[in-house]
Amino acid sequence: MKLSGISLLFLIFLAQAAFAQDPGLLIKTPATDLKSGPAASAHARSMGSGGAATGGPLAPSTVYSGAPSLNGGAVVVEDPGATVSNDLDNYDDEPVASIADPLEPWNRFWFKFNDIFFIHVAKPVYEGWTWLTPRFVQTGLGNLFHNVLFPTRFVNSILQFRFMEAGVEFSRFMMNMMGSAGLVDLASSKKTIVPVDPSGEDFGQTLGRWGFGQGFYLVWPFIGPSSLRDTIGRVGDVFTDPIFYVNPWPYSTGTEVVFRLNALGDVLPAYDDLSSISIDPYIAMREAYASLRAAQVAR
Amino acid sequence: MTNVIPRFWNPRAGAAIIALFACLFMTDGAWAQPGQEAREALSAAVNRIMADIKSPDFSNPATREAARGRIENEVYKIFDFGEFSSRTVGPRWKQFSAEEKKRFADAFAKLLFNTYLNKVTGYNGEQVAYNGETVSPDGKLAEVKTTITLKDGKRTPVNYRMLLKDGSWRVYDVIIENISLVRNYRTQFQDILKSATPDQLIERINQKAKEVIAQGAGK
Question: Does this complex have an ipTM over 0.85?
């Protein structure tokens, strides 16, 4: 029996080796791909400083020719082949699918409130914070926050019967905690057995996975866009958030505030973008929230 | 018995049948093509735009205007803002007059182009990977999937929806992080058009574009 086990392993190994040899299974890189390597970057560099090469007085543009050239592999073309599908939405006449919003005036009020709070309170405070703290403190705290919230992602992966993802979350957590007490994302360079999105799972997504719809759109003060389902999800997530169990409440609130403030670095630019590009930022945010959550549930 | 070949057979019919088969096989080959064609059109445009962005002319304030103009040209070649506009407005687009349609498309293009270019100050080592295509059965629509890796290692999926128009592939929607630009604007415009005329909507877009341009100039 033992021998057959070993020979089976050997066969699998052989099969894998054979697959790896088969050029048909390898990623094709067509000739249109920007060539990577030293030759290409040398070429790019020579294009970048063409004015200097021809001699004569320096054109003003060559003063800035220190601009980096496209590094090798800046453009990668993989060709897994095209899939044919009928659901390429041409937006011809189909009515817009969006989240129900029966409380629109109420939501608009809190949206405006949050907007003022974000721009006149949160943003200046965050700018002060980035001025006050060195960059490594900000990244360290960001990584620590992510690792502290591990139980939420782990429990919800299990609740969604995604055991492989739960395993990935667990090993990432162990690696980061043992290696750096959670301050460095050591696991980020490791390839995982299944792709796991860094934003992770939460209870709102679990409810969605279990078949609950969004219900309707809700905007909370300070927290921002949510829905009936995601509000219930957020309450559920409190129980898997270790900070919630920190005993004298000023400590837990303080920690939470520092972590959330530190995390604003990801939120503020996205928020600025959204409000600067949209004609009606309220609706833009509502739509973006609904599609983002739908995609997170579906992935 | 020598007449094994049926009487109606003649060389001309044979040639026609062979030509017919050849056509069939050629179209058969063409089925697999649209995705690749769309991707090649897109990646060529992206490469040209990236080359313009990393060119020293773009980082030099004195020559930036000209460099921006070149980028604008490239963007207008690959993006079809008319198609963008009709889709963002939706069924009400038919109620727009030809003149309103043009003004709308111009204003919308101005807004989109300037918002995105304001963010770009130069090439910072962003990487683009093309990860395959989805094609409609008739081969006239394609979605080209890409991933942009920013300098800090964050990856953003950006998918381009393209259509075959007059023999060339043009972009009609961009889907960033699963959020469709067209769909997002569509809900905004639909809501605004409930209570406003097309003219007022165009005015609002122009206003917003002006704000964005002023922001860019202030940088």
Answer: no
